[in-house]
């Protein structure tokens, strides 16, 4: 397993050095990603389009095509249409959901297309030639360990899940492993689909159902925004911590300000899609075949290091 960020830098360097040696046949790189339905995916769309613009300008014999889809079924249709209408040399895909996209992506691979999977993963990892993601188990485990420490190993928790995907499963596993052996009790755990509005409604339900909650793990920052608003409107004072994950600039700003309810964060940059696109293209223009798994670290963001993760001009 590869965990070094320098892999992407090396791939880019190979591309630049080989810009005059590119093959004559134009290589088609399709990029399929969810539509910008919340903050993190807005960042994904932004960085994917930026990568396509840069690569298409720098390498005339490479065409990067970006397609966004608002649902899993739309994404299936989009990649099937792309594959039917032209020969795709590589597909870089961030699946809307894991199970629904696994079969269609395998069918494209069977045509000889190289597959790069980003973030959410497929249920069959043998389909991918390259996988780029954050360390989702660490996102959950590092957050859980913080809560175990700060709550003295005991208390009532509620958890919000994301979209049914491999990465949601990994985050939940990491969190459960992190609280194992403590007296922290998960009162409830339901899906909010990484959506602020759904998280707001679910947190209202939790607040109505449970008279005492010590901490909330929202699983990501879009969900956390909904949780924080629900807690604020309720006037409840029992909740000591409300935590998310992904590195949204608004949440990192809370960490910098030493917000008592949200004092830490975990990074999960949407720019990983750009890294994945560059690494995929590198093998066609830089004679640098890249295979395997690239995982980005997920250390706790604290007031001491938060400025390193704060990018106010970023879309996320």
From TrEMBL:
Keyword field:
Signal
Query: What GO MF terms are annotated?
Result: carbohydrate binding
Keyword Signal attached: yes
Family in the record: Belongs to the bacterial solute-binding protein 2 family.
Where is it localised?
A: Cell envelope
Report what the protein is called. Answer: ABC transporter substrate-binding protein
Recorded hits in InterPro entries, A to Z, give: Peripla_BP_I (IPR028082), SBP_2_dom (IPR025997)
Q: Which organism is it from?
A: Rhizobium tubonense
């Amino acid at each position: 397993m590869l965990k070094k960020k320098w892999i992407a830098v090396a791939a880019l360097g190979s591309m630049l050095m080989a810009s005059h040696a590119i093959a004559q046949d134009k290589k088609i790189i399709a990029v399929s990603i969810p539509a910008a339905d919340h903050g993190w995916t807005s960042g994904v769309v932004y960085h994917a389009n930026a990568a396509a613009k840069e690569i298409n300008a720098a390498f005339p014999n490479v065409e990067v095509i970006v397609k966004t889809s608002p649902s899993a079924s739309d994404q299936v249709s989009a990649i099937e249409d792309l594959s039917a209408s032209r020969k795709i040399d590589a597909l870089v895909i961030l699946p809307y959901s894991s199970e629904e996209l696994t079969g269609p992506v395998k069918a494209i691979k069977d045509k000889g297309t190289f597959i790069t999977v980003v973030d959410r993963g497929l249920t069959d990892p043998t389909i991918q030639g390259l996988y780029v993601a954050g360390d989702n188990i660490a996102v959950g485990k590092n957050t859980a360990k913080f809560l175990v420490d700060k709550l003295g190993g005991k208390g009532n928790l509620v958890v919000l899940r994301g979209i049914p995907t491999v990465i949601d499963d990994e985050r939940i596993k990491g969190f459960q492993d992190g609280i194992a052996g403590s007296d922290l009790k998960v009162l409830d755990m339901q899906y909010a689909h990484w959506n602020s509005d759904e998280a707001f409604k679910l947190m209202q339900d939790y607040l109505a159902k449970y008279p005492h909650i010590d901490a909330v793990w929202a699983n990501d920052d879009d969900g956390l925004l909904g949780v924080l608003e629900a807690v604020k409107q309720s006037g409840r004072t029992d909740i000591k911590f409300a935590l998310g994950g992904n590195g949204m600039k608004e949440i990192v700003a809370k960490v910098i300000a030493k917000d008592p309810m949200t004092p830490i964060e975990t990074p999960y940059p949407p720019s990983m899609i750009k890294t994945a696109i560059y690494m995929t293209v590198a093998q066609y223009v830089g004679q640098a075949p890249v295979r395997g798994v690239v995982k980005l670290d997920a250390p706790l963001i604290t007031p001491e290091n938060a400025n390193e993760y704060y990018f106010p001009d970023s879309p996320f």
